[in-house]
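# nightly structure sweep
# worker-07 picked up a monomer target from the shared queue
# config: single-sequence mode, recycle default, output format = structure tokens
# input follows
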Amino acid sequence: MDLLLVEDSPTDRMVIQARLQHAFPNAQIAAADDLLGFNEHLRRDGCDIVITDYWLGWSDGLSVMQRVRDRWPRARVIMLTGNGGEEVVAGAFKYGLYHYLLKPDGFDELASVTSAAMDSKRREDSYALMAMIVNSIPDGVLCVDAAGIVTAINAAAHRMYGYADSEIVGRTSAILLPAAKRGEIRRLLERALGGEVVPLFPTLQVRSDGAEIAVGMTILPMRDDDGGVSGVACIATPIGRPIRNVAASAVANEAEAPRLAMSLNSD
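# output follows
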């Protein structure tokens, strides 16, 4: 854990540092008591948690928080204030404040609030790492909720389907399916929503330009922190070139789909 304490009162700074060191003996705790020291600390590569007083002789907590968020966007900021009103607190939360505590009573809560802030930071870091991994893999990944709505899409799926985030997220996943395949895929999604992994199978998908593409697809249940299935991840690997425009002929759609499925199975 990497903490920065911004406090110009020597007494408060000593009390806060002592409490933090007692609660987190392995944490790296730095302190800034003036603008020069604060600027110096902002040159560091990263920081997990910043604890700042609101009333500083050389600045104020809102200004400190804005600079911290600019430098370390995922850092959690905890603000201590002796007489800040509701207006101050409301303004701080608009800028991304994690929590605020009143002096001096809030000193007793500081360790638990800091621990919760660190847990929150670790979760966000983990999500960011997973997002980076998912965006790095060559397969298209589409997340779909229980109502069949697309909630997320990775970079490979953007390229595969030709949709931007704003064009696909929040819309039904059915727009990616030929009409003849919707019933089959809906049943497979229901199996995954029931907790079952649907192993790799060949199917057809529809790009934003109307062209069909052949893919191998696996459907995985996505579980929340409580173990419940909150949605599914559809992982698609292209196994053929775009076939044709779906709008060309509804009759041709129905006639060719079974033949194409057989050819995919024979590969």
